[in-house]
Fold:
Amino acid sequence: MKEKVGKMKDGNTQIYISLANKAKEENRAGDTIHFLQLALKGAEGEERLELLFALAMELEEAGDLFSALDVFGRIQREYPEEAGADYGMAMVHESLGEVKKAERYYLSALNKAPDYASAAFFLANLYDTCGRGELEEYYYHQVLKTDEDYMTYNNLGSFYEERGQYGKAKAYLEKSIALRGDYFLSHFNLGVVEKALGNREAAQRAYLKALDLNPGYENVYLNLSALYIEDFFYEKSEKILHLGIKNAPKAYNLYYNLSCSMLHLHREEEAFAMMQKALELSSDLAMFLKTDEDFIPYHEDERYQRLLEEAEK
Structure:
C-alpha cells in the first residue's frame, strides 16, 4: 500500500508539472503558479529544488515579489549551499530598491560559488548605478575570468569611455562585437569612442550599423545628427532626424534637435513648429530652450515667447 501511494504521488507530480508547462506556454501565470505549487507537494530532492526555483521565478515575473522572496527563502533553508537562492534574493531585493540587501545576497552567492558569472555581472551593474566604479570594474573582470560574455565587454567599454580611456574602451567594444556582431549597443558605444578619438568616419559607420540593428534607438539619431551638425551637414542632420521621428515618434529630443537644424537652414516657421511639438511631448525642455544658443537671437520673437508661455502653463 505504501509503495502504491508513493507511485501515485510521483505520477501526480508529473501531471502537475505538465499542466504548469502548458499554462506557461499559454501565458497563464496564475495557473502556472497554481500547478507548480501542487507539483511541489509530491516532489523531492533535485526535482523539488528545480520546482522551487521555477515557482520563485514565476512569482517574480508576475510581480509578486514578496512571495518570490518567501520561496527563495525556502530554498535557502532546505538547500543552504545553493548559491542560486542567494542570487534570486539579490535580484528581487534590487527590484524592490533595497540596494544594501541586494549587494549582500550577490556577495553571498559569490561566496558560495566564486565562478557564478551572472551574480558577478549583476553585482557590477549594481555598483554602476551606485557610482562605485572601482568595484564595478572589478566584478566585470571577475565575469570575464569564467565567461567570455559580449555584454560584459560592452559594459567595460562603456565604463572606460566614461573615464576618458578611449583606447581601452575601443579594445573592449571590439571584443564585444567580435563575440556578438548583432548587439547594437556595442556598435553605438564604439561610435561614441571613435568620435572621441577623432575618427569621425569610423564613428559614422558605427552609428549607422547600430541604427541598422535597432532603428528604434533614439540616441543613435541624436548622435548622428550632432555629428552632421558639427561638420555643417545640416541637410543630413535633418534627414536622419526625420527618420528617427518616423521610427520613434514619441522621442521629444529628436523634435528638439530637428528644430535646431531647421534654424541653421533658415526655415524658421518649421523650426518653431518642431519645437512646439517637442514641448508638447515634454514641457521640461523649456528650461533648455531658454539657454539654447541657437534660439538666443529669437528671445524677443513673439513665436519664441509664445512657445515658453504654452510650455509653462
In short: Residues 1-9 have pLDDT under 50 and may be disordered. Residues 43 and 137 are 42 Å apart (CA to CA). Residues 233-313 form a domain with the Serine Threonine Protein Phosphatase 5, Tetratricopeptide repeat fold (CATH 1.25.40).
